[in-house]
Amino acid sequence: MSSLLQVRVTGVIVEEGRILLVKQRVSADRAWSLPGGRVEQGETLEAAIVRELEEETGLSTEVVKLLYLCDKPDASPSLLHITFLLRRTGGEFRLPSNEFDANPIADVVMIPIQELEAYGFSAQFAALVRDGFPNAGSYQGLKRNIGL
Length: 148
What we know:
The chain is mostly beta strands and 148 residues long. The protein has a single domain, classed as Nucleoside Triphosphate Pyrophosphohydrolase, CATH 3.90.79.10. 14% of the residues lie in helices and 41% in strands. It contains 2 helices and 9 strands. A 5-stranded mixed beta sheet has the order 5-1-7-6-9, covered by helices on one side. Strands 2, 3, 4 and 8 form a 4-stranded antiparallel beta sheet that branches.
């Protein structure tokens, strides 16, 4: 059984009161998300999020710290979701090629944190970002516990 658990990493970049988002259909209610993706076989979590950010946004980054670890057991296969705070170290914004992606990214933007709800994010997640990620580095249980 090779698909008992899927590991997904996402990255948060906050600069001057703005947060990085990618336009990619998440659900019927939300068309924007944090950049990230699946961890590949043999890849560390850090390498995975740095690779995903470069592939999806064109930015070079480094991990600052672990923000949250969450579960999504109702996904198929079950999902372990790991969110990191990142720092931009270089690169330029660009769209990915999307050549192998069934859910392509249509835009990459930095938006004011106070506009997160207008982009389909929950008030709960927006508050976590505004408050500087209280309880960073902790296990939060179900993914919905952080409003995602």
